[in-house]
Amino acid sequence: MKSTERRLNAILNNVTVAIFLIDEKRHCVFMNKAAEELTGYSQEEARGRSLREVVHHPLLDDRPCSSGDRLTGQAFYEREKTQGEEVFLHKDGHFYSAFFTASPAAGDDGQPLGTIIEMRDLTEEKAREAALRESEDPFRNMADHAPVMMWVTDPTGYCTYLNRQWYEFTGQTPEEAKGYGWLEATHPEDRKRAEAEFTRANDLQTSFRAEYRLRHVSGTYRWAIDAASPRFGDGGDYLGYVGSVVDIDDRRKAEEQLALKEEQLRLALDVAEIGQWDVDQASGRMFWPPRVKAMFGISPDVPVTLDDFLNGVHPEDRDRTREAYSAACDPDVRALYDIEYRTVGKEDGITRWVAAKGRGLFSTQGICFRVIGTAIDITRRKRGEIRLRELNERLEHEVTHRTAERNRVWEMSRDLLAIMGFDGRLKAINPAWESTLGRNMETLLSLSFKEQVHPHDHAAGEEAMRRLLRGETVERFEDRLAHADGSWRWISWTLVPEGDVFYAVGRDVTSEKEAAWELGHAQEALRQSQKMEAMGQLTGGVAHDFNNLLTPILGSLDLLQRKGLGGEREQRLIEGALQSADRARTLVQRLLAFARRQPLQAAAVDVGKLVGGMADLLASTTGPQVRVVVEVADDLPPARADPNQLEMALLNLGVNARDAMPQGGTLRITATRDSVRSNRGALKRGHYVRLSVADTGVGMDEPTVARAIEPFFSTKGIGKGTGLGLSMAHGLAAQLGGALTISSREGVGTNIELWLPISTLVPSHDKTVSARVFTDHARGLALLVDDEEVVRASTADMLEEFGYEVQEADSGEAAMALVAQGFRPDLLVTDHLMPGMTGVELASALRAQFPELPVLVVSGFAEFEGVAPALPRLTKPFRSAELEECLAALTTNGWPNSEMNA
C-alpha cells in the first residue's frame, strides 16, 4: 500500500500541472511540487490549512472575499466540476494568472470526501499575448501613418488589412476593399495581369513587384508600384503577404520627359561630334552610340559590355583608366572621371586616343547605380602633341631655346602659375595673376598666400598643405582669392610638391560657380512654383466639398431663424451657429481665392473711389494708434477687378499691417497707374493699377517673405489668424491677370502691392432689385435639380417658402424625363457640375423648348467653364435671402438668348 502511495506521489510530483487534494473541511491534504512552485508554500506549510490560506485571492474593496465569491469555491457549494481563469496572489506578494479545474471527490456511498483542484500557470502565456498586442499596435499605427499604401493577406490571398492611405487614395470603404476588393480599384486593362502576377507569387510564396494603374478617389487612374514579400511564422508556416503600393504616376511622367530631353541631348552631342556613354552599374549594360563604338573600332550594331570597354583600352593605359573609373564609382571619393587613354580597335586594330569625362550617380544610400559621361576622339590632337614632344626632346640640347619656350609658356598662360614655399609665401608668379586679381605682382608677392585667401577657405588650405607635405599631388582644390575691387575669385588648383617647394597651376572658375548657383536658384524657384500649384489644386478641391457641406447647414439654420422657432435661448444658439457657418463660408472663399478658383464677378472698378470709401472702415479697424493715409493718383484709370473680393483683400492687408505695428505707426494706401515693359516673374508685361499697402511695422526676414503667401502660414501665433489673408490676396490678383509683390525689411516695415490690369470698360453702378417684389409675386412650378440630396432638400424648403411648388430631380437626365412626361416648369434652379448632363446643358435643352424659362445655376464648384459671364448663378453655400435676391433679379432682368453659348 505504501509503495503504491509512493509511486502515486512520484507521478504527481513530476507532472507540470499544480494539483491540490482538499478534504471535506476544505483543508489541504496534498500538494505536488508544481503546486508548491505556483503558490510559494511547501506541502508541509500547506498541509492542514484551508485552501484560501494557500491560494490567496486579491482583496476586493480592501476586504478578503469568501471562497464562495470565487469560481474555485463553487465546487464546494455546487458539488459539481468547475473550471475557469482567475488571478491569485503568490506567497512573495506577486500576482499570477492561472486556469483551474475543481472536481468534487465522493466515496463509494456517494458522500463527499473532498475536492481535487488542478491549476495551470498562465503568466507566460498572458505575457506573450500582451507582447503580441503591443507588437501589432505599433505596426498598425506605423502603417496608418506611412506615406504609402500598405496591405496584408492571409495564406489564401484574402486581403485582411489595408492601411488608411489605401482608403484615402482609392476612396473605397473597408467593405468594398475587403478580400479581393482591391482588384475593383485596378484599371480594367491591368486587372487580369495584376491578379495573375499576385496569384502566381502567392502559389510560389515568393516576393513580387508589379506596376499597374490604380483608380484614385477623384475617378482618374494613376500608375502605382505594388511590391510585397511573403511572411512566415516561427515554425516556418506560410502566413500570407505584406506589401506596399506607391503612387508613381508623377515619376512615370517625369521619366517620359527625361527620355525626351536625353534624346535632345544625344542629338546635340551628335552635332558637336561628342560621344555620350552610360553604364548601368547593377547590370553592367552600356549605352554606346555609334560614335563611341567607332573610337574602339567596333561596328555600330555590335552590342558592348563593360568588359569590352576595359579590354579595348591600350594595355599601358588600362590600369590607370580602371583606377580612375573606380574612383568615380567609389561613394567615399566620387571623383570626376577625367582621363585620356589609347584604344586598340577590336575589329580594325587601329590605335586611337580618347579623352573621356564622366561622373557617378549615387542613390541616397550612397550606392553608385550609373556612370555617365562623354568621349571625344583626340587622335589628331595627340599626334600633334606627340610631334611637339618629339620636337621638344630634340630641343632639350639647346638650352636657350628650351628656356625661351618655358618663359613663353610662363608669360602667356592664362592660368595662374606659381612657385610657393611650404611657409605659405609666393616665390614666383606669372603675369596671369595680375589680370585675374587686379593687383600688381609686387603687391601679390609681398603678401602671404593666406592673406589673399578668403577666411572661410583657410581650413581647406591647411589640409591641402598637409597633403603636399606628405608628398601627395593635390588636384582640383578650390579656394577664393581676393580681387582688387573687393570681390572674390574662385580658383581651381593643381598642386605638385617638389623638394622644399611646390608648383601651383590655378584656373579661374568664378563664372562656372556663378552659373551653377544661378541654375540651383532657378531649380529652387521651379520647385516652389510647383509646390504652390499643387497646394492650389488641393485647396480648390477641399473648398468645393465644404461648399456642399455648408449649403444645407446654412440654409437650415437660416430657415429656423426666420421662422422664429424656439425660445430666446434657442434663437441665440441658432444665431451663434449661423455666425460660425458664415465664418466657415468666408474661410472657403479665402481658400478659393488662394487657389484662384473663386467665382469672380470681374468688372471695371474705380479703385480710387473704392479705397476712399473704405478709409473710415480701415481707420476704425486698425485703431487710434495707427495713422491711415490714402493717396490716389488723379489720372487713375479703372481696374479690372471684383469689387467685393478687392474690398476683402484690402481689409485683410490692413489688419495684417495693424498686427505688424503693435506700438502704432502709419498705414499708407497708395493707388497709382504703372506699366511693366518686360515680364518680371509672375508680373507680365502690360498696364496696371498698382494698389500699395505699406506699413511701418516690424517687417519680415527673407525666409518669411518667401513663405508669406502660403496658405495657413502665419507669424501671429496660434489662434491669432487663419494665415489666409495674403494667400487670398495673391490668388485674387493672379486670377485677375495681375500679381502680388512683397518688399519688406526687418525693423523698417512691409509694402504689399496688388497689380490689377487696367480695364477698357467704364465703371458702372449696380442696380438693385427689390426682393420683396419678387416674394409677393413668386408663384408657379419650380424644377430643382441637384445630385446632392441634402442640398436639394434645403433649397426646396426655401423655394416652397417663396410660394413655389417644387419638383425635384437628382440629375439632368431625370429632369428631362419629367419634362418629357408633361411637366411644364415656370422656373429652373439647377446645380452646374453633376454626373452626366451639366446644369448649363440642361438649361440649354429646356430653353430650346421653353424660350422664356427663367434659369438660375447653383454650384459648389468655383469653375464655370463654358458658362456666359452674365448667366444668373449663385455659389454654394447661400442663405434664403441670397437666393431670394437672385430670383428677384432673374424674374426682373430675364436671361438673354444671346448669352447661352458665350
TrEMBL record:
This is histidine kinase. Residues 4-56, 135-211, 261-332, 402-472 form the PAS domain. Residues 541-760 form the Histidine kinase domain. Residues 82-134, 208-260, 337-390 form the PAC domain. It catalyses: ATP + protein L-histidine = ADP + protein N-phospho-L-histidine. CDD domains: HisKA, PAS. It comes from the Bacteria. SUPFAM superfamilies: ATPase domain of HSP90 chaperone/DNA topoisomerase II/histidine kinase, CheY-like, Homodimeric domain of signal transducing histidine kinase, PYP-like sensor domain (PAS domain). PANTHER family: PAC DOMAIN-CONTAINING PROTEIN, PHYTOCHROME-LIKE PROTEIN CPH1. Keywords: Kinase, Phosphoprotein, Transferase. PROSITE patterns: HIS_KIN, PAC, PAS, RESPONSE_REGULATORY. Its EC number is 2.7.13.3. One of its GO terms (molecular function) is phosphorelay sensor kinase activity. Residues 781-891 form the Response regulatory domain.
